[in-house]
């Protein structure tokens, strides 16, 4: 008999990635669609339609990663910064609709599980995952296991405060000066626009005058060509990323910090300033042992991780 497969979903603020994942973490089918954030019900209907479109007889479970704080006791998405989900009993809703075991997980936790099992963290027992995109997600692998906290809401690393009087955080987060507000792709969008307005003769300013969209993607593209305002933007973001990582290194003493998410494609333009800050600000000996590396699984880390937590639900049933 063939091994069962699971349906995996990686729900983000901008897109919903869905697919079928086998027990080796291989994605066999994948579908991507813009996330419908018009209402809570619209998101839930979109998730259900994605599952329905992939449902086959050998599907054993469903795993879904969502950018939300999670209550694992009740299987609820409690609060979400970038999508309209609040106090939603998602696990029960999907189980009642489709009749298979369902696991829900924070999206960055799911990515951490995938990178630890099959990606950059393979072979390590103490790992921190940061996902840089619309926001900043976090996941903790401590002594070889995903750390979920008392009820499942742990590792909201993007909401560590860097600056008490910093910019407001995103969505419905009440904080200010959080890592997410200062080191995400969204933050880089804002820094790039500010630089273009401040210096019309700089590389970003000239690009704006040519009608180009000034955002993080453009900053990465221009920064690759050499010094300029775009490079300064990435240095600025990388500095704040490093400040955050230095604190995580001091607190958790990880062997590895893995950085993924769409904005991580900036690579060393972002990582090198972060590494410099960690070398200057973190405590010895932890700072001397930690490695800061890019994720290996790319955009599929969250999807693969959702599949892996789906298999956890399947194994619990048996």
Describe the structure.
The chain has 318 residues and is α/β, with parallel strands linked by helices. It has two domains: 122 residues, ATPase, nucleotide binding domain (Nucleotidyltransferase, domain 5, 2-Layer Sandwich); 175 residues, ATPase, nucleotide binding domain (Nucleotidyltransferase, domain 5). The chain is built from eleven helices and 13 strands. The chain has a five-stranded mixed β-sheet with strand order 3-2-1-4-8. Strands 11-10-9-12-13 form a five-stranded mixed β-sheet, sandwiched between helices. The model has no long low-confidence stretch (mean pLDDT 94).
Pick out the low-confidence regions.
Answer: none
The best one-word shape is globular
Architecture of the largest domain, CATH level 2?
A: 2-Layer Sandwich
Averaged pLDDT, please? 94
The topology string of helices and strands comes to EEEHEEEEHEHEEEHHHHHEHHEH
Largest sheet: 5 strands, mixed
How far from one another are the termini? 16 Å
How many domain units?
Answer: 2
Based on CA atoms alone, the radius of gyration comes out at: 20 Å
Helix content: 40-55%
Number of helices: 11
Q: Could you name the CATH class of the largest domain?
A: Alpha Beta
Number of strands: 13
Secondary-structure blueprint:
Elements lengths: L4 E7 L3 E7 L5 E8 L5 H15 L4 E8 L1 E4 L4 E5 L5 E3 L1 H9 L3 E5 H12 L8 E6 L3 E7 L2 E2 L32 H5 L1 H14 L4 H7 L6 H8 L5 H24 L3 E5 L7 H14 L4 H4 L1 E4 L6 H17 L1
Parallel strand pairs: 1-4, 4-8, 9-12, 12-13
Antiparallel strand pairs: 1-2, 2-3, 5-6, 6-7, 9-10, 10-11
Helix pairs in contact: 3-11, 5-6, 5-7, 5-8, 7-8, 8-9
């Amino acid at each position: 008999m063939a091994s069962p497969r699971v349906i995996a979903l990686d729900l983000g603020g901008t897109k919903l990635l869905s697919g079928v994942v086998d027990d080796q973490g291989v994605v066999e089918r994948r579908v991507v669609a813009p996330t419908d954030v018009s209402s809570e019900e619209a998101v839930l209907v979109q998730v259900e339609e994605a599952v329905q479109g992939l449902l086959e007889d050998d599907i054993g479970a469903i795993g879904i990663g969502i950018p939300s704080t999670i209550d694992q006791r009740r299987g609820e998405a409690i609060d979400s910064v970038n999508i309209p989900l609040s106090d939603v009993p998602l696990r029960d809703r999907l189980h009642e609709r489709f009749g298979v075991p369902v696991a829900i997980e924070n999206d960055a936790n799911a990515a951490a599980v995938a990178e630890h099992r099959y990606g950059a963290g393979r072979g390590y027992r103490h790992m921190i995952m940061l996902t840089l995109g619309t926001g900043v997600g976090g996941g903790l692998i401590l002594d070889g296991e995903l750390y979920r906290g008392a009820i499942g809401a742990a590792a909201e690393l993007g909401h560590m405060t860097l600056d008490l009087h910093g910019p407001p955080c995103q969505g419905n987060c009440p904080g200010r000066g959080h890592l997410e507000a200062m080191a995400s792709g969204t933050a880089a969008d804002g820094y790039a626009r500010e630089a273009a307005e401040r210096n019309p003769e700089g590389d970003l300013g000239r690009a704006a005058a040519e009608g180009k969209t000034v955002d993080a993607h453009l900053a990465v593209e221009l920064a690759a060509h050499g010094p300029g305002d775009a490079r300064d933007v990435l240095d600025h973001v990388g500095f704040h990323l490093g400040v955050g990582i230095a604190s995580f290194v001091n607190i958790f003493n990880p062997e590895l910090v893995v950085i993924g998410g769409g904005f991580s494609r900036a690579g060393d333009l972002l990582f090198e300033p972060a590494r410099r800050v960690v070398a200057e600000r973190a405590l010895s000996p932890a700072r001397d042992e930690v490695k800061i590396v890019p994720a290996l699984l790319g955009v599929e880390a969250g999807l693969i991780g959702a599949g892996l937590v789906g298999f956890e639900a399947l194994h619990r049933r048996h």
